[in-house]
Amino acid sequence: MEIKHILEAQQFNRDWLENELFPDTEKMREVADSGGSNLLKGRRVITFFYEPSTRTRASFEIATKLLGGDVIFSTENAKEFSSAARGESIEDTVRVLCGFGPHAIVLRSDEEGMAKRAADYSSVPIINAGDGTGQHPTQALLDIYTIKKELGEVDGIEIAMVGDLARGRTVRSLSYLLGKFSGVKIYFVSPEVARMRDDIKDYLRKHNVEFTESHDLREVASKVDVVYQTRTQKERGNLLERYENIPGFYIVNKEVLGLMKERSIVMHPLPRNSEISPEVDPDPRAAYFRQAQNGLYVHMALLHYVTSS
Ligand code: CP
User: Fold this and answer.
1) Could you say which architecture CATH assigns to the domain 9-134+293-308?
2) Residue 243 has pLDDT above 60, yes or no
3) What's the confidence (pLDDT) of residue 239?
4) Ligand 1 geometric centre to CA of 74 (Å)
5) In terms of Cα–Cα distance, which of 48, 24, 46 is closest to 37?
6) Among the listed residues 90, 57, 91, 86, the one whose alpha carbon sits nearest the alpha carbon of residue 73
7) pLDDT tens digits for 60-81?
């Protein structure tokens, strides 16, 4: 499968995930452990972020360096520190950046669809590092890799996706990827106002992925192999007020851990706020920091794909 841009999770197929991404990510883990390589020698990467990031920007930049490439320009707040602040469009911005000779642009924006708009005007691969409430495909790729690595299988898993599902982009992208596997069951657990949007539910129905919707994590915790917790997207407005004022239960704490299977995991794309209690961290089922680390290896593999084709 040839990859130019990485824009949305549904562009990938199962064969590519299992036979290219997963094994190549394992190789990149070895490369990182052995101090790096020259696979990206002579390759130049721009990271252009309109929204804050720790994991995604750091890991793409470190991935570039570990593979012997160069991050030739990076901005962490393009809304303020680029000419976007003076009204420049993404179309003009990307045309100008392409003229500076990158081999890939990693782009995070606050607008759904901006990565696709950028790709329409870009002569080099655009990697969507999150576009508003749209998608976060690179997060979903590291999530599906983490599920495979932690549980050994993706087929047949039961997963609870919890929290602000209406505006969380990671759960949207992960739902698309889970639709590539068989026998998966998804429990969407959220307040009424934060339910998963219809486009994803329509996609899951079309791909015969069973799902339910509820608002108490404790009711499903004992059934699932994965609790995928998310934070309230406060930066996207006041759709949700404080969780404690909304009927239901959406926190991973010791009580929830006590209900979960011995062989199950808690995931979170991070950053977390109060939706996973720190008391959960020492439990071996708390996989979220391992998940974040996996992102480095997945991003190394993705950079290699898009810059070598
Ligand atoms: N998971 C994730 O995208 O984290 P950052 O916002 O820190 O990049």
Assistant:
1) 3-Layer(aba) Sandwich (3.40)
2) no
3) 60
4) 16
5) 24
6) 57
7) 999 999 999 999 999 988 888 8
Gap between the Cα atoms of 127 and 5, Å rounded: 6
How is the chain split into domains, by residue range? 9-134+293-308, 137-291
> CA 39 to CA 68: how far, in whole Å?
6
Ligand 1 lined by 295 (C-beta under 6 Å): no
Query: Is the pTM above the cut of 0.90?
Result: yes
| Residue 292 CB–ligand 1 contact under 6 Å | no
- End-to-end CA distance of the chain, in Å? 11
pLDDT bin (cut points 50, 70, 90) of residue 246 is: confident
Q: Do domains 9-134+293-308 and 137-291 have the same CATH topology?
A: yes
- Return d(Cα 184, Cα 154) in angstroms, integer: 8
The pLDDT assigned to 282 comes to 98
Ligand 1 binding pocket includes 264 (Cβ within 6 Å): no
With a 6 Å cutoff on the Cβ, whether 289 touches ligand 1 is no
Q: How confident is the model over 97-117, as a mean pLDDT?
A: 97
DSSP per-residue string spanning 232-258 = --GGG-SSS--GGGSSSB--B-HHHHH
Residue nearest to atom 3 of ligand 1 (CA): 56
Number of helices followed by number of strands (H, E) in the chain: 12, 9
Query: For residue 263, what are its two tokens?
Result: 């062989």
Per-residue pLDDT at 46 exceeds 60: yes
State the average pLDDT over residues 2-20: 96
Superfamily of domain 137-291: Aspartate/ornithine carbamoyltransferase (3.40.50.1370)
